[in-house]
Amino acid sequence: MMAVTEDHVLEELKKVIDPELFVNIVDLGLIYAVNLSDSETEGQQDVQIDMTMTSPMCPAGPQLIGNSKQVVSALEEVGEVEVKIVMDPPWTPDRMTEDARDHLGIF
Known about the structure:
By secondary structure, the protein is an alpha+beta fold. The chain has a single domain (6-89), classed as GMP Synthetase, Chain A, domain 3, CATH 3.30.300. It contains three helices and three strands. The protein is elongated and about 45 Å long. It starts with 5 loop residues before the first helix and ends with a helix. 26% of the residues are buried.
């Protein structure tokens, strides 16, 4: 079994699409940090994800958190998954990738 990496987790998180903007949460810049630590289960790693929302009252928040946990938990090498919402620093469109900007028509 391969050890999970931050890049592997980010690739899985690209499967989580914001239901209002139709762009994945990684390209939107909502993922601030992915931290890996040894799990109590041998051969697995626990994952802590720090993510934000486009606004503090984002109606899609609970869905995005749940979907994030679901896709990362599905990885064989992953034990516990914790998604922590952080609002500092606040999200801005500057955090989006070029692909996301193009998709949303932001230049």
